[in-house]
Specification:
By secondary structure, the chain is an alpha/beta fold. The protein contains 11 helices and 14 strands. The strands form 3 sheets. Strands 5-6-7-8-9-10-11-12 form an 8-stranded parallel β-sheet. α6 links the parallel β5 and β6. α1 packs across α4 and α6 runs parallel beside α7. The relative contact order is 0.15. This is Dipeptide epimerase. Its cofactor is Mg(2+). It is an enzyme of class 5 (isomerase).
Length: 327
């Protein structure tokens, strides 16, 4: 039976709204890529991201354009050359990983040499809002081990202080999503250090972050929008202490594994993150994140409903995927 490709668009409602410095969204619009071969099914999910010029329509069209190659038994290695990094390649790459594992009778866990993958402590995200609202959300989740706080305005000091007071014992990541002006950068970093913040993510716009190389950084600073694939790493060494690897940026698990290896060689700390998607999108990232310093794979926790048979979450932990879901 020849290989076949199916592309589906799905929408999962978000609990309330997910708000960052660039705006708010109320649904996670994802693309499900299904590859069938010899009666075996492999699946991968991606989340198109407008910040990178992607829409559901453009990403679906990109996958469709690759249909002849995919259905002609394109391998994961060939895929890296056939499609550029981004959400479209991610969906195809992860579907191929899933298909390969199920076809071989092994699992991705075994193929990656993970003898006993463990549950991971994942961040839980608090959306950008007024300081008292964010403090209330932080207080309601203060028993979680790790919180990720969306900031990214010209004056976030009150937000940072309010959240720390509401969650005095939690480790906290601040994610500015490129939103801090240069003139407040050092002030916000000093406040972050005073409030025992573990990591500050992408404070300045990608391509306009030279100032990070010129100032003292009193807390760890992590690249997100500034880093997409392995080729970006060398130029960031003077500006960032950590990098956020997301499969929708790298274009799948294959490139993410290579990027992680090179980042570790360059002494970057590793964060494995996600877009807001379902457990199918998180599953390969949980395996990638097994030895990461920071894990932010809470996408399904932000949804009103997850995909059936999703990952197991309890308190601050997320467990590795069962092969019935992926891999």
């Amino acid at each position: 039976m020849p290989r076949s490709l199916e592309i589906q668009t799905e929408s999962f409602p978000i609990l309330g709204a997910f708000t960052i410095s660039r705006g708010a969204k109320t649904s996670a619009d994802v693309i499900l890529c299904t590859i069938r071969e010899h009666g075996i099914v492999g699946q991968g999910e991606c989340v198109p991201y407008r910040r990178y010029g992607e829409t559901v329509e453009s990403v679906a069209a990109q996958i469709e354009a690759a249909r002849p190659l995919i259905e002609a038994s394109l391998t994961r290695q060939e895929l890296q050359r056939a499609m550029p990094p981004g959400a479209a390649r991610n969906a195809v790459d992860c579907a191929l990983w899933d298909l390969e594992a199920k076809s071989s009778g092994n699992s991705v866990i075994k193929d990656l040499g993970l003898t006993k993958p463990k549950p991971l402590t994942t961040a839980f995200t608090i959306s950008l809002g007024e300081p008292d609202v964010m403090a209330g959300q932080a207080r309601a989740n203060a028993d979680r081990a790790l919180l990720k706080i969306k900031v990214g305005t010209g004056d976030d000091e009150r937000r940072i202080r309010a959240v720390r007071e509401a969650a005095p014992n939690a480790a906290i990541i601040l994610d500015a999503n490129e939103g801090w002006p240069e003139e407040t950068l050092e002030h916000h970093l000093r406040i972050a250090a005073e409030m025992r913040i573990a990591l500050v993510e992408q404070p300045l716009p990608a391509g306009k972050d030279d100032l990070l190389a010129e100032i003292r950084r009193p807390v760890l600073v992590c690249a997100d929008e500034s880093v997409h694939h392995t080729g970006d790493l060398a130029s960031l060494r003077d500006r960032y202490d950590a990098i956020n690897i997301k499969l929708d940026k790298t274009g799948g698990l294959t490139e993410a594994l290579a990027m992680k290896k090179e980042a570790q060689r360059l002494d970057f700390k590793i964060m494995v993150g996600c877009m807001v998607g379902t457990s199918l999108a998180m599953a390969p990232a949980v395996l990638l994140a097994q030895d990461a310093e920071f894990v932010d794979l809470d996408g399904p926790l932000l949804l009103a409903r997850d995909r059936e048979g999703g990952l197991r979450y309890a308190a601050s932990l997320v467990w590795p995927p069962e092969t019935t879901l992926w891999g």
